[in-house]
Amino acid sequence: MSGSGPLGLDPALLDILACPDTHHSPLTVDEPAGELLCTTCDRAFPVRDGIPVLLLDEARHRNAGTTGA
Fold it and tell me: Is residue 39 domain-resident?
């Protein structure tokens, strides 16, 4: 697998990644923030060392002041 795409991720991997929440919506890339964004729930998932961290506990809500409980 080649990391030649945004954030060092393989473009084919980006095509199949989805939000881990029940809606499984596609993710988009926010390169400046180093995150993958859900198109439905507005969560931002970090990408660390070229590895997407798709854990709900690790995500942040972009339009909320806090991640909530």
Answer: yes
pTM of the model as a whole: 0.83
Query: Domain count of the chain?
Result: 1
CA distance linking residue 52 with residue 69, whole number of Å = 22
What is the domain range of residue 30?
A: 6-61
- pLDDT tens-digit readout, 39-67: 999 999 999 998 999 999 999 998 865 44
Q: Which CATH number goes with the domain that contains 27?
A: 2.20.25.10
